[in-house]
Amino acid sequence: MYKLHDCVLICLPGVLDSLESFTVQSMLSGIHVQQVSDCTDLLAVLHQIHDLLDSQTQQSPIKLIVVDGMASLFRHSFTNYGLRSKLLNSLMQGMLQVACHHQIAVVFTNQMARRVTPDAP
Q1: In 19-120, which ranges are E strands?
Q2: Does residue 20 surpass a pLDDT of 60?
Q3: What are the backbone angles phi and psi of residue 70, rounded to the nearest 5°?
Q4: Torsional sign, CA 16, 29, 39, 47
Q5: How far apart are the first and last CA of the chain?
Q6: The dihedral formed by the CA atoms of 59, 31, 23 and 17, expressed in degrees to the nearest 10
């Protein structure tokens, strides 16, 4: 496996100047992070998405929304499975409308785990 210090970088004139400004901070400067602790916080943030997308500028348009670990917020908060399913479905429909209206991608991820045993298929 190659490491960065094992590589040779050949640059055209002017390219090296732009690479010097390519830092972790410059890459992360366009990323908005909103941490939520429960499903109520998640609902509030998702309802604020419309305002955020409506106020975006042409210079830095938002093209991707990633919601990570959404199911874990609902797993322990609800004992009524019908209500939980209805709320999750409503959230998904709302984000589908946001994606279509603003022409952006929305990705939901979930924490996945599998117990590995010798008998597992």
Answers
A1: 64-68, 105-109
A2: yes
A3: -60, -40
A4: negative
A5: 31
A6: -10
